[in-house]
Design brief:
By secondary structure, the protein is α+β, with helices and mostly antiparallel strands. Helix content is 27%, strand content 31%. The strands form 4 sheets. It has a 15-stranded mixed β-sheet that branches. Strands 9-6-7-12-11 form a 5-stranded mixed β-sheet.
Amino acid sequence: MKVFLIVCALLLAPVQAWAIESPLRVLIDVRSNHSDGEHDFQTLTKLAEKRGIDVLAFTEHDRYSIRLGLEPVPQILGYAMQHPSLYVTGVEKFFDDLASIRKQHPEMSFMAGTESTPAYTWSGIPFRDLTLIDAERHIITLGIEKPEQVRALPSFDLRHAHGPFALSMVIWWVVVGGLVFVLIRKRQEAIALLLFAAFMALLAFWFTRPALDADADFIAKAEQQGLFTIWTHPGTLSGIRPGPFGVLLDTPPYSERVFRDPTANAFSAVYGDTDSNPVPGGPWDSYLIEYMMGRHAAPLWAASCGDYHGEGLANEYLGNFPMDVWADNASPEGVLQALRLGHMVAWYMPAERNIRVSELYLEDINGRRLIPGDEAAVSSDLMLNFSLEKMPSDKMKDNNRPIGVELVVDGRVVRRMAMNFAEPLRESLHLVSGAHVVRVRIPKQWTGWMEANPFLLRVK
Protein backbone atom coordinates (compact mmCIF):
# COMPACT_ATOMS: atom_id res chain seq x y z
CA MET A 1 0.00 0.00 0.00
CA LYS A 2 2.83 2.39 0.92
CA VAL A 3 4.58 1.77 -2.42
CA PHE A 4 1.30 2.40 -4.25
CA LEU A 5 0.85 5.76 -2.48
CA ILE A 6 4.42 6.84 -3.26
CA VAL A 7 3.98 5.99 -6.95
CA CYS A 8 0.70 7.95 -7.03
CA ALA A 9 2.37 10.96 -5.40
CA LEU A 10 5.18 10.93 -7.95
CA LEU A 11 2.71 10.72 -10.82
CA LEU A 12 0.56 13.54 -9.47
CA ALA A 13 3.39 15.88 -8.44
CA PRO A 14 3.97 17.43 -11.90
CA VAL A 15 0.26 18.09 -12.36
CA GLN A 16 -0.05 19.74 -8.94
CA ALA A 17 3.05 21.84 -9.49
CA TRP A 18 1.47 23.52 -12.49
CA ALA A 19 -1.46 24.91 -10.51
CA ILE A 20 0.63 28.12 -10.67
CA GLU A 21 2.23 28.29 -14.12
CA SER A 22 4.75 31.02 -13.23
CA PRO A 23 6.90 30.49 -10.15
CA LEU A 24 6.73 32.67 -7.07
CA ARG A 25 9.66 34.88 -6.11
CA VAL A 26 10.72 33.68 -2.65
CA LEU A 27 13.40 35.16 -0.41
CA ILE A 28 14.79 33.42 2.67
CA ASP A 29 17.82 33.90 4.96
CA VAL A 30 16.75 37.39 6.01
CA ARG A 31 17.54 38.79 9.47
CA SER A 32 15.52 41.59 11.07
CA ASN A 33 16.07 43.58 14.25
CA HIS A 34 14.56 40.64 16.11
CA SER A 35 18.09 39.22 15.92
CA ASP A 36 21.17 40.88 14.41
CA GLY A 37 19.55 42.53 11.38
CA GLU A 38 19.39 46.28 10.80
CA HIS A 39 15.72 46.69 9.80
CA ASP A 40 12.29 46.04 11.26
CA PHE A 41 9.58 44.02 9.52
CA GLN A 42 7.95 47.09 7.96
CA THR A 43 11.17 48.28 6.34
CA LEU A 44 11.98 44.83 5.02
CA THR A 45 8.47 44.46 3.63
CA LYS A 46 8.71 47.76 1.73
CA LEU A 47 12.07 46.74 0.27
CA ALA A 48 10.63 43.34 -0.70
CA GLU A 49 7.65 44.92 -2.46
CA LYS A 50 9.99 47.08 -4.55
CA ARG A 51 11.89 43.95 -5.58
CA GLY A 52 8.78 42.00 -6.52
CA ILE A 53 9.10 39.47 -3.69
CA ASP A 54 6.00 37.30 -3.26
CA VAL A 55 7.12 35.38 -0.18
CA LEU A 56 9.50 36.72 2.47
CA ALA A 57 10.98 34.46 5.15
CA PHE A 58 12.44 35.90 8.35
CA THR A 59 15.07 33.42 9.53
CA GLU A 60 16.38 34.84 12.79
CA HIS A 61 19.15 33.62 15.05
CA ASP A 62 17.39 31.58 17.72
CA ARG A 63 20.36 31.68 20.11
CA TYR A 64 23.45 33.68 19.19
CA SER A 65 25.93 33.39 22.04
CA ILE A 66 29.52 32.54 22.75
CA ARG A 67 29.70 30.34 25.83
CA LEU A 68 32.97 29.49 27.51
CA GLY A 69 32.22 26.63 29.88
CA LEU A 70 34.00 23.85 31.73
CA GLU A 71 33.67 20.35 30.30
CA PRO A 72 31.90 18.05 30.85
CA VAL A 73 29.15 20.40 32.04
CA PRO A 74 29.74 23.63 30.04
CA GLN A 75 26.05 24.60 30.19
CA ILE A 76 26.23 24.67 34.03
CA LEU A 77 29.73 25.98 34.70
CA GLY A 78 30.60 28.81 32.38
CA TYR A 79 29.77 32.22 31.00
CA ALA A 80 27.78 33.06 27.86
CA MET A 81 28.13 36.35 26.00
CA GLN A 82 24.80 36.94 24.28
CA HIS A 83 24.38 38.62 20.90
CA PRO A 84 21.02 39.83 19.55
CA SER A 85 18.78 36.83 18.89
CA LEU A 86 15.27 35.57 19.59
CA TYR A 87 16.63 34.37 22.94
CA VAL A 88 17.42 38.01 23.83
CA THR A 89 14.73 40.05 22.02
CA GLY A 90 11.92 37.64 22.88
CA VAL A 91 10.41 34.72 21.00
CA GLU A 92 6.83 35.81 21.77
CA LYS A 93 7.48 39.34 20.51
CA PHE A 94 8.78 37.93 17.23
CA PHE A 95 5.58 35.98 16.64
CA ASP A 96 3.41 38.91 17.72
CA ASP A 97 5.13 41.12 15.14
CA LEU A 98 4.85 38.36 12.54
CA ALA A 99 1.09 38.16 13.07
CA SER A 100 0.87 41.96 12.82
CA ILE A 101 2.81 42.22 9.55
CA ARG A 102 0.68 39.46 8.05
CA LYS A 103 -2.48 41.44 8.84
CA GLN A 104 -1.04 44.71 7.53
CA HIS A 105 0.24 43.23 4.25
CA PRO A 106 -2.09 40.46 3.07
CA GLU A 107 -0.77 40.94 -0.46
CA MET A 108 2.52 39.30 0.57
CA SER A 109 3.16 35.97 2.24
CA PHE A 110 5.49 35.77 5.25
CA MET A 111 7.30 32.73 6.60
CA ALA A 112 9.27 32.27 9.80
CA GLY A 113 12.29 30.21 10.72
CA THR A 114 15.70 30.30 12.33
CA GLU A 115 19.35 30.38 11.46
CA SER A 116 20.79 28.05 14.08
CA THR A 117 24.21 26.86 15.19
CA PRO A 118 23.86 23.13 15.96
CA ALA A 119 27.14 22.99 17.89
CA TYR A 120 30.54 24.52 18.45
CA THR A 121 33.78 23.57 20.16
CA TRP A 122 36.85 25.33 21.50
CA SER A 123 40.56 24.84 21.08
CA GLY A 124 43.67 26.59 22.39
CA ILE A 125 44.16 28.57 25.59
CA PRO A 126 43.06 32.10 26.61
CA PHE A 127 45.22 35.12 25.76
CA ARG A 128 47.17 33.11 23.21
CA ASP A 129 45.19 31.12 20.63
CA LEU A 130 41.73 30.44 22.12
CA THR A 131 39.64 29.56 19.06
CA LEU A 132 35.89 29.06 18.68
CA ILE A 133 35.30 26.40 16.04
CA ASP A 134 32.15 25.97 13.91
CA ALA A 135 30.20 28.84 15.50
CA GLU A 136 29.21 29.95 11.99
CA ARG A 137 28.25 26.48 10.79
CA HIS A 138 24.57 27.20 10.39
CA ILE A 139 21.37 25.40 9.49
CA ILE A 140 18.27 27.33 8.46
CA THR A 141 14.86 26.06 9.50
CA LEU A 142 11.64 27.08 7.76
CA GLY A 143 8.04 26.48 8.77
CA ILE A 144 8.12 27.67 12.37
CA GLU A 145 4.78 29.07 13.55
CA LYS A 146 4.90 28.80 17.36
CA PRO A 147 7.37 29.90 20.09
CA GLU A 148 7.63 26.38 21.47
CA GLN A 149 9.03 25.19 18.13
CA VAL A 150 11.96 27.58 18.55
CA ARG A 151 12.59 26.51 22.13
CA ALA A 152 12.54 22.83 21.14
CA LEU A 153 15.60 23.25 18.89
CA PRO A 154 18.84 21.97 20.51
CA SER A 155 20.60 25.21 19.60
CA PHE A 156 18.26 27.26 21.79
CA ASP A 157 19.55 25.74 25.03
CA LEU A 158 23.17 25.35 23.80
CA ARG A 159 22.88 21.60 24.17
CA HIS A 160 25.93 20.94 22.01
CA ALA A 161 28.09 23.91 23.00
CA HIS A 162 31.33 22.35 24.23
CA GLY A 163 34.07 23.96 26.26
CA PRO A 164 37.83 23.86 25.64
CA PHE A 165 39.13 20.41 26.59
CA ALA A 166 42.68 21.34 27.60
CA LEU A 167 41.63 24.37 29.64
CA SER A 168 38.85 22.43 31.37
CA MET A 169 41.24 19.61 32.27
CA VAL A 170 43.80 22.00 33.74
CA ILE A 171 41.21 23.85 35.83
CA TRP A 172 39.68 20.64 37.20
CA TRP A 173 43.07 19.20 38.19
CA VAL A 174 44.18 22.46 39.80
CA VAL A 175 40.93 22.92 41.77
CA VAL A 176 40.47 19.29 42.82
CA GLY A 177 44.16 18.73 43.43
CA GLY A 178 44.32 21.89 45.55
CA LEU A 179 41.32 20.84 47.63
CA VAL A 180 42.71 17.34 48.14
CA PHE A 181 46.04 18.81 49.23
CA VAL A 182 44.34 21.15 51.73
CA LEU A 183 42.18 18.34 53.14
CA ILE A 184 45.16 16.06 53.63
CA ARG A 185 47.06 18.84 55.39
CA LYS A 186 44.06 19.19 57.72
CA ARG A 187 44.07 15.43 58.32
CA GLN A 188 40.77 14.96 56.52
CA GLU A 189 42.01 11.97 54.51
CA ALA A 190 38.59 10.31 54.23
CA ILE A 191 36.96 13.41 52.74
CA ALA A 192 39.96 13.88 50.44
CA LEU A 193 39.60 10.28 49.26
CA LEU A 194 35.87 10.75 48.61
CA LEU A 195 36.55 13.95 46.69
CA PHE A 196 39.22 12.28 44.58
CA ALA A 197 36.92 9.29 43.90
CA ALA A 198 34.14 11.66 42.82
CA PHE A 199 36.60 13.40 40.52
CA MET A 200 37.61 10.08 38.97
CA ALA A 201 33.91 9.28 38.42
CA LEU A 202 33.51 12.66 36.73
CA LEU A 203 36.43 11.89 34.43
CA ALA A 204 34.99 8.45 33.65
CA PHE A 205 31.67 10.06 32.72
CA TRP A 206 33.49 12.66 30.65
CA PHE A 207 35.60 10.23 28.64
CA THR A 208 33.00 7.48 28.17
CA ARG A 209 30.12 9.64 26.93
CA PRO A 210 28.95 8.35 23.54
CA ALA A 211 29.89 10.56 20.63
CA LEU A 212 26.86 12.40 19.29
CA ASP A 213 26.46 13.91 15.85
CA ALA A 214 25.13 17.33 16.82
CA ASP A 215 24.12 18.13 13.23
CA ALA A 216 22.10 14.93 12.99
CA ASP A 217 20.48 15.63 16.36
CA PHE A 218 19.48 19.13 15.29
CA ILE A 219 18.07 17.92 11.96
CA ALA A 220 16.13 15.14 13.70
CA LYS A 221 14.61 17.58 16.22
CA ALA A 222 13.64 19.94 13.40
CA GLU A 223 12.09 17.13 11.35
CA GLN A 224 10.04 16.01 14.35
CA GLN A 225 8.40 19.44 14.20
CA GLY A 226 7.82 19.28 10.45
CA LEU A 227 10.44 21.93 9.68
CA PHE A 228 12.41 22.27 6.44
CA THR A 229 16.19 22.43 6.98
CA ILE A 230 18.91 24.02 4.81
CA TRP A 231 22.68 23.94 5.23
CA THR A 232 24.07 27.45 4.72
CA HIS A 233 27.40 28.40 3.08
CA PRO A 234 28.95 24.87 3.32
CA GLY A 235 32.00 25.90 1.28
CA THR A 236 32.64 28.94 3.46
CA LEU A 237 35.85 30.88 2.85
CA SER A 238 35.70 32.93 6.05
CA GLY A 239 38.92 31.38 7.41
CA ILE A 240 40.38 32.16 10.83
CA ARG A 241 39.75 35.73 11.92
CA PRO A 242 39.67 37.80 15.14
CA GLY A 243 36.48 37.74 17.21
CA PRO A 244 35.40 39.45 20.45
CA PHE A 245 37.65 39.53 23.54
CA GLY A 246 40.63 38.27 21.55
CA VAL A 247 38.91 35.01 20.65
CA LEU A 248 39.64 33.62 17.19
CA LEU A 249 36.76 32.42 15.00
CA ASP A 250 37.25 29.43 12.73
CA THR A 251 34.50 27.77 10.70
CA PRO A 252 36.15 25.46 8.14
CA PRO A 253 34.22 24.34 5.04
CA TYR A 254 31.78 21.57 5.93
CA SER A 255 30.70 20.31 2.51
CA GLU A 256 31.73 16.76 3.37
CA ARG A 257 29.15 16.69 6.16
CA VAL A 258 26.42 18.10 3.91
CA PHE A 259 26.60 15.16 1.52
CA ARG A 260 26.64 12.46 4.20
CA ASP A 261 23.47 10.99 5.67
CA PRO A 262 21.61 11.94 7.73
CA THR A 263 21.53 15.33 6.06
CA ALA A 264 19.21 18.31 5.75
CA ASN A 265 16.48 18.80 3.14
CA ALA A 266 18.55 21.27 1.13
CA PHE A 267 21.87 23.07 0.97
CA SER A 268 22.81 26.54 -0.12
CA ALA A 269 24.07 26.08 -3.67
CA VAL A 270 24.13 29.85 -4.26
CA TYR A 271 25.49 32.36 -1.73
CA GLY A 272 28.33 34.84 -1.30
CA ASP A 273 31.33 32.51 -1.30
CA THR A 274 32.68 30.60 -4.25
CA ASP A 275 31.47 27.03 -3.93
CA SER A 276 32.33 23.93 -6.00
CA ASN A 277 29.48 21.79 -4.67
CA PRO A 278 27.01 22.50 -7.53
CA VAL A 279 29.55 22.46 -10.39
CA PRO A 280 28.90 19.68 -12.93
CA GLY A 281 30.31 16.42 -11.66
CA GLY A 282 30.73 17.80 -8.15
CA PRO A 283 29.47 16.49 -4.80
CA TRP A 284 25.86 17.44 -5.50
CA ASP A 285 25.68 15.52 -8.76
CA SER A 286 27.34 12.53 -7.10
CA TYR A 287 24.78 12.60 -4.29
CA LEU A 288 21.85 12.80 -6.71
CA ILE A 289 23.18 9.94 -8.83
CA GLU A 290 23.60 7.84 -5.68
CA TYR A 291 20.03 8.71 -4.70
CA MET A 292 18.78 7.40 -8.04
CA MET A 293 20.71 4.20 -7.30
CA GLY A 294 18.91 3.84 -3.95
CA ARG A 295 21.82 4.81 -1.71
CA HIS A 296 20.07 7.77 -0.07
CA ALA A 297 16.60 8.07 1.36
CA ALA A 298 15.80 11.41 -0.27
CA PRO A 299 17.26 13.91 -2.73
CA LEU A 300 19.18 16.93 -1.48
CA TRP A 301 17.80 20.13 -2.98
CA ALA A 302 19.57 23.36 -3.97
CA ALA A 303 18.57 26.62 -2.28
CA SER A 304 19.78 30.22 -2.30
CA CYS A 305 20.92 31.87 0.94
CA GLY A 306 22.23 35.42 1.04
CA ASP A 307 22.70 36.00 4.80
CA TYR A 308 21.00 39.39 4.54
CA HIS A 309 21.41 41.74 7.53
CA GLY A 310 20.89 45.20 6.07
CA GLU A 311 20.74 47.20 2.87
CA GLY A 312 24.25 47.82 1.60
CA LEU A 313 25.97 45.78 4.31
CA ALA A 314 28.67 43.55 2.81
CA ASN A 315 27.51 44.79 -0.63
CA GLU A 316 24.15 43.08 -0.23
CA TYR A 317 20.67 44.31 -0.96
CA LEU A 318 17.36 42.63 -0.32
CA GLY A 319 16.64 40.18 -3.10
CA ASN A 320 20.01 39.48 -4.69
CA PHE A 321 19.81 35.82 -3.59
CA PRO A 322 16.20 34.88 -4.45
CA MET A 323 14.53 31.64 -5.44
CA ASP A 324 11.80 30.99 -8.01
CA VAL A 325 9.41 28.44 -6.52
CA TRP A 326 6.58 26.55 -8.23
CA ALA A 327 3.93 26.26 -5.53
CA ASP A 328 0.21 25.56 -5.51
CA ASN A 329 -0.30 28.80 -3.60
CA ALA A 330 1.68 31.50 -1.81
CA SER A 331 0.75 30.43 1.71
CA PRO A 332 3.59 29.31 4.01
CA GLU A 333 2.21 25.76 3.83
CA GLY A 334 2.06 25.84 0.02
CA VAL A 335 5.60 27.19 -0.33
CA LEU A 336 6.96 24.73 2.24
CA GLN A 337 5.43 21.82 0.32
CA ALA A 338 7.00 23.07 -2.92
CA LEU A 339 10.40 23.33 -1.23
CA ARG A 340 10.09 19.76 0.03
CA LEU A 341 9.47 18.63 -3.56
CA GLY A 342 12.44 20.61 -4.87
CA HIS A 343 10.25 22.78 -7.10
CA MET A 344 12.63 25.74 -7.18
CA VAL A 345 15.67 27.34 -8.73
CA ALA A 346 18.30 29.33 -6.81
CA TRP A 347 19.63 32.68 -8.04
CA TYR A 348 22.30 35.26 -7.50
CA MET A 349 21.97 38.51 -9.40
CA PRO A 350 24.02 41.71 -9.25
CA ALA A 351 22.75 45.18 -8.39
CA GLU A 352 20.22 46.65 -10.83
CA ARG A 353 19.47 43.13 -12.05
CA ASN A 354 16.12 41.51 -11.33
CA ILE A 355 15.06 38.64 -13.58
CA ARG A 356 13.23 35.40 -12.97
CA VAL A 357 12.31 32.14 -14.61
CA SER A 358 8.99 32.36 -16.42
CA GLU A 359 9.05 28.70 -17.48
CA LEU A 360 11.35 25.73 -17.04
CA TYR A 361 10.07 22.26 -17.81
CA LEU A 362 10.76 19.04 -19.65
CA GLU A 363 8.06 17.67 -21.91
CA ASP A 364 7.96 14.10 -23.18
CA ILE A 365 6.36 12.77 -26.36
CA ASN A 366 3.08 12.20 -24.49
CA GLY A 367 2.82 15.90 -23.61
CA ARG A 368 3.63 15.34 -19.96
CA ARG A 369 5.42 18.25 -18.31
CA LEU A 370 7.92 17.99 -15.48
CA ILE A 371 9.31 20.89 -13.49
CA PRO A 372 12.51 20.99 -11.39
CA GLY A 373 12.39 18.49 -8.54
CA ASP A 374 9.99 16.10 -10.27
CA GLU A 375 10.84 12.41 -10.24
CA ALA A 376 9.09 10.33 -12.89
CA ALA A 377 9.28 7.62 -15.51
CA VAL A 378 9.47 9.21 -18.96
CA SER A 379 10.07 8.39 -22.61
CA SER A 380 13.57 8.67 -24.03
CA ASP A 381 12.85 11.76 -26.16
CA LEU A 382 12.23 15.01 -24.31
CA MET A 383 11.99 18.72 -25.03
CA LEU A 384 13.52 21.31 -22.71
CA ASN A 385 11.57 24.57 -22.44
CA PHE A 386 13.26 27.45 -20.68
CA SER A 387 12.53 31.17 -20.67
CA LEU A 388 13.42 34.17 -18.53
CA GLU A 389 11.71 37.48 -17.99
CA LYS A 390 12.64 40.83 -16.52
CA MET A 391 10.81 42.03 -13.46
CA PRO A 392 9.64 45.67 -13.27
CA SER A 393 12.53 46.68 -11.00
CA ASP A 394 15.18 45.43 -13.44
CA LYS A 395 17.26 48.42 -14.58
CA MET A 396 19.47 46.86 -17.27
CA LYS A 397 18.75 47.26 -20.98
CA ASP A 398 20.11 44.07 -22.51
CA ASN A 399 17.18 42.22 -24.08
CA ASN A 400 19.22 40.77 -26.94
CA ARG A 401 22.44 40.05 -25.10
CA PRO A 402 23.10 36.28 -25.05
CA ILE A 403 22.90 34.37 -21.77
CA GLY A 404 24.92 31.17 -21.47
CA VAL A 405 23.04 28.09 -20.31
CA GLU A 406 24.36 24.62 -19.49
CA LEU A 407 22.45 21.35 -19.70
CA VAL A 408 23.91 18.83 -17.24
CA VAL A 409 23.10 15.12 -17.49
CA ASP A 410 24.47 12.73 -14.86
CA GLY A 411 27.17 15.18 -13.83
CA ARG A 412 28.40 16.05 -17.35
CA VAL A 413 27.71 19.19 -19.36
CA VAL A 414 26.19 17.70 -22.50
CA ARG A 415 25.22 20.99 -24.11
CA ARG A 416 26.09 24.67 -23.87
CA MET A 417 23.41 26.95 -25.26
CA ALA A 418 22.66 30.64 -25.58
CA MET A 419 19.36 32.41 -25.02
CA ASN A 420 18.02 35.91 -24.41
CA PHE A 421 14.96 37.45 -22.84
CA ALA A 422 13.06 37.76 -26.11
CA GLU A 423 13.32 34.16 -27.30
CA PRO A 424 12.54 31.10 -25.14
CA LEU A 425 14.99 28.21 -25.31
CA ARG A 426 13.66 25.03 -26.89
CA GLU A 427 16.10 22.13 -26.94
CA SER A 428 15.53 18.44 -27.66
CA LEU A 429 17.12 15.80 -25.44
CA HIS A 430 17.48 12.07 -26.03
CA LEU A 431 18.24 9.76 -23.10
CA VAL A 432 19.10 6.09 -23.08
CA SER A 433 17.16 3.73 -20.83
CA GLY A 434 17.96 3.84 -17.13
CA ALA A 435 18.07 6.42 -14.33
CA HIS A 436 19.24 9.96 -15.08
CA VAL A 437 19.78 13.26 -13.27
CA VAL A 438 19.11 16.19 -15.60
CA ARG A 439 19.49 19.79 -14.54
CA VAL A 440 19.81 23.25 -16.04
CA ARG A 441 22.16 25.94 -14.82
CA ILE A 442 23.30 29.44 -15.75
CA PRO A 443 27.00 29.57 -14.87
CA LYS A 444 28.53 32.74 -13.44
CA GLN A 445 28.33 35.56 -15.95
CA TRP A 446 27.16 39.14 -16.44
CA THR A 447 23.55 38.35 -15.61
CA GLY A 448 24.35 36.53 -12.35
CA TRP A 449 24.01 32.78 -12.01
CA MET A 450 21.36 30.16 -11.38
CA GLU A 451 21.21 26.56 -10.17
CA ALA A 452 17.98 24.72 -10.94
CA ASN A 453 16.98 21.63 -9.05
CA PRO A 454 17.18 18.41 -11.06
CA PHE A 455 14.70 16.42 -13.06
CA LEU A 456 15.03 12.87 -11.66
CA LEU A 457 14.18 10.59 -14.57
CA ARG A 458 13.80 6.90 -15.22
CA VAL A 459 13.68 6.22 -18.91
CA LYS A 460 11.60 3.22 -19.92
